[in-house]
Amino acid sequence: MDMIEAVKDFDYQVLDAINFPGPTAYDAFWFAYSDKMTWIPFVLVILFCLFRRTNWRSALLLLAAVGLLFFLSDFVLAHFKPIFGRLRPSHDANIMNILHYVNNYHGGLYGFPSNHASNGFATATMLTLLYRRKIVAACAFLWAIGSCYSRMYLGVHFPTDILVGAIIGTCIAVVVYHLYKYVYKRLSSKWNLPPFEQQFDKGEPWPIIVVFVLTIVALLCFAVI
Fold it and tell me: What is the pTM of this model?
C-alpha cells in the first residue's frame, strides 16, 4: 500500500468512527456548532476585547493584522481547494453512501484543506500569542477543536483535511503575529505607541470567556428543546 492509499484508508476508518447516527439532540448541537453564524457574538466580543484599550494608531495596526490573518486563513485558503481537487467525504463515492448526514447537509464539492480548521486555529493561536493567558488559550482552542470535530461528525471533512487546515492556520497566525509585532515596534517611536507587551496585559479578558461559555450553554439548550 503506497502513502496516498494509506492516508485514504486512515481517513475512511477514522471518519467512519466519528461520523455515526447520533441522538437528535447530538445532531442538533453539532450542526449549530458548525454554523459560522452561531459564533458571531463570540467573534465580536473578541474584537471588542482586542480594541477596547488601544488608541487609534494601535487599533489601525491591529486591524491590519486581524484582516491579514483572516484574509490568508479563509479567503486565500478557499482558493486552493479547487487546485487540490480533493472531494469532501459527502461527495466521495467510496464513502458517501454510508455516512450519516444531518439536515441533509453535504457541503461544497471540495474540502481540502478545511477552512473551519484554518480559521479556528488561526484565531486560537493569535489570541494565545497576544494575551499569553492560559484561560484564553483554553477557550480558544476548545472552540477550534469543537469546530473541527463538528465538520467530521457532519461528514463534510476528512481528518487530514482538518489536520492540514489546523497546521496552516497555526502557521499563518504565528507569521502574522510576528509581522504585526515587528511593524508595531518599528513604528512605536514615530507614532508614540504604548509598549507592545503592555497592550494586552491589563487583566483577564473575561468577556471572551463568558461569551464562550454562554454560547455553549445556549447550544446545549437549543439541542435538547
Answer: 0.93
Which residues, including other chains, have CB under 8 Å from residue 180's CB and lie 6 or more apart? 61, 62, 64, 65
Contacts of 171 (CB under 8 A, 6+ apart): none
Q: Is 114 left (phi over 0), alpha (psi -120 to 50) or beta?
A: beta
In this predicted model, which residue has the larger pLDDT, 206 or 158? 158
- For 110, residues 6+ apart whose C-beta sits below 8 A from its C-beta are 81, 82, 84, 85, 86, 87, 88
Instruction: Quote the CA–CA distance of 222 and 224 in Å, as a whole number.
Output: 6
pLDDT of 88-124, one tens digit each? 999 999 999 999 999 999 999 999 999 999 999 999 9
Helices (H), the chain: 3-18, 24-34, 40-51, 56-70, 77-78, 81-84, 115-131, 134-153, 159-191, 206-224
Query: Which residues share a beta bridge with 110?
Result: 87
